[in-house]
Amino acid sequence: MALLTSFYVHHPMSIRHLRLTEKHLLAGTASGAIHIVDRRCRHTENFSGCEHRTTIEAGETWHFDCYQNTLITANNDHVLRVWNVDTGLLQRTLARHSSAVNQVLIANAATVISSSQDSTVIVWDLPTAVPRWTLSHGAVVECLMIHGDLLFTGARDGTITIWDLEKGGFVRVLQGHTTPVWRMTVHLDGRLLATGASGGSMRIWDATSNHCIAECQGHTKMITDFTSVSETQLMTSAADGTIRVWDWTTGRHVSTLVAHERAVRGLSLTSQRVISGGMDGYVRVWDRADMTTSYEMREKVRAVWHLVSEADTIGLALLVEEGKHLIEMWDASQLK
Ligand SMILES: [Zn+2]
């Protein structure tokens, strides 16, 4: 397992968001400093001659997304800001929300979706910076996901709404959760949807009807990540320290692994391994075949804020000591 790049970020609060795209690894703080490193970088620690790192000061930021060389920040001042990652320059602003923007998702080069504390979701035409549709909810939307032409929104009132992105129309609402919905994932075929809400509640839905297939009992705290293991199995990590495996089609519980002493913050799958990061400071590598044997991928730190992956590359945001964070990128293709 090779460490590809690493650098320190000094900030009194947590790393709020970590994102790994085809070209970049991006780490954002609550104050809005977005630290960006080109994935070609092979410098570690704070090598002073590194030409691959930039920082964009975006203003107080809740969330961001990046697609190719476009970074969009969801700002507290009701505005989305569009940045060129290569030049670090602000290109345009998307201003139509009437409260803080809490989520942003870049669907493609022309379409951006945002949700706000004003309880609306806006589908933007990026080249013109004009809203294509404004979708009204009864509550603030906490998570956004797209699959094909469908947009899925999970809200603070426990509802999940499905929208048609082409026509901008309402498709259906899924009701059952009684707490805010924070996480979602869709099965490969697009028919099944898994959702996680506050308190560890989890459901699997038939996304083509309003039918809830299963209430998945087990997690006692919020689900932090979903990963499809196969066509038939879904893996979850949670703030209760466990990793669980479920049958995708029935919601039946398959197995539970006590993975970390504190919250599991992220999961990644390679062909033979599962990698998990915990607030206990460990990044652990598990054998997918039996999910029992494990080793620590790196030495313990204070906490693992985020673990993200893209293809065979892993991104980590780690708390080393109070106010000092380490951002790392690893090649996971050579795991022993
Ligand atoms: Zn570099």
Description:
This protein is mainly β and 336 residues long. Helices cover 0% and strands 59% of the residues. It has no helices and 32 strands. The strands form eight sheets. Strands 1-32-31-30 form a four-stranded antiparallel sheet, with no helix packed on it. The protein has a four-stranded antiparallel sheet with strand order 2-3-4-5, with no helix packed on it. It has a four-stranded antiparallel sheet with strand order 6-7-8-9, with no helix packed on it. It starts with a strand and ends in a 5-residue tail after the last strand. Bound molecules: zinc ion. Zinc ion is lined by residues 41, 43, 50, 52. Zinc ion (ZN) binds next to loops.
Summarize the structure.
Helices cover 0% and strands 59% of the residues. By secondary structure, the protein is mostly beta strands.
